[in-house]
Design goal:
single chain, 262 residues, alpha+beta, Chitinase A, domain 3
């Protein structure tokens, strides 16, 4: 499409040779104008993302009127007073908050039901063991080293995904194992890692209440059950040179941050 549009412009300019219309596009992107153009493009991208987010929540948006309001404001010719603008924006914000709460509530319920079905089906597998808390784990390979205690520091490799198979974090792709205090992670990890020996690799199926519960964390939506494949690389006793190391490597939707329900 982009090439097609450029061809039309080129053809229409031929009879006019170096007309003003033909020079308009290159002049717009001349070095002296690129910064100004970038400011406008930045505003446009931001406004576009806001309008998309609002439309996803069912809000009506008239793009032409949005553009009209933007241009009027730039010219200092707004048709509404500042007080009216704030008032209408507050009304819109309340509507959007209500719509988002309803959407989140529906999604949380959907995730909870899907997670329960997934865990119930998975529990029937002969390779899966279920703890009293509801954590499910599967031994991929056993280790022979130390078993971490609640306050120990561990180094792990892992990948995490949603129950539909969508991967949200993977230390292997970063080629960087993560080192952290066990008390800093979600409950499913705290319990699961203490079942492992150094060198072991397990698969965890974690109920939402042992993960992030009703919180949204990155791409992990409320009440999501999570699946992790975890390799316990090293166990260390807590100490001055160990506590809290390696946290910068954690992915946004990883497993940091203990559940607030604990």
């Amino acid at each position: 499409m982009k090439t097609f549009k450029k061809s039309i412009i080129a053809i229409s300019c031929l009879p006019l040779f170096l007309s003003v219309q033909c020079m308009a596009e290159p002049e717009l992107l001349a070095d002296s104008n690129k910064e100004s153009y970038s400011i406008g493009a930045s505003f446009g991208n931001y406004i576009s993302s806001q309008l998309y987010s609002q439309s996803q929540l069912g809000a009506e948006v008239d793009v032409d009127i949005v553009v009209e309001g933007l241009l009027d404001a730039l010219k200092g010719q707004s048709k509404l007073s500042n007080e009216d603008i704030v008032s209408y924006l507050n009304i819109r914000a309340e509507q959007l908050n209500t719509a988002k709460e309803e959407k989140d509530k529906d999604l949380a319920l959907k995730n909870l039901v899907a997670g329960e079905k997934f865990l119930a089906k998975n529990k029937k597998s002969a390779d899966v063991r279920t703890t009293e808390s509801g954590l499910q784990y599967e031994v991929i390979s056993q280790g022979s080293g130390a078993i971490p205690q609640a306050n120990d520091v561990v180094t792990v490799h892992y990948k995490g995904y949603l129950i539909d198979g969508t991967e949200f974090d993977n230390s292997y792709t970063r080629d960087e194992a993560n080192r952290f205090s066990l008390v800093t992670v979600i409950e499913g990890w705290q319990e699961g890692l203490q079942l492992m020996k150094e060198g072991a690799k397990y698969k965890f199926n974690i109920p939402s209440e042992l993960a992030y519960g009703e919180r949204q964390v990155g791409m992990i939506s409320p009440n999501s059950a999570l699946v992790f494949e975890v390799e316990l690389v090293k166990v260390e006793a807590p100490g001055e040179n160990a506590h809290g190391m390696g946290l910068s490597g954690m992915g946004m939707g990883g497993m940091m941050g203990a559940n607030p329900h604990k």
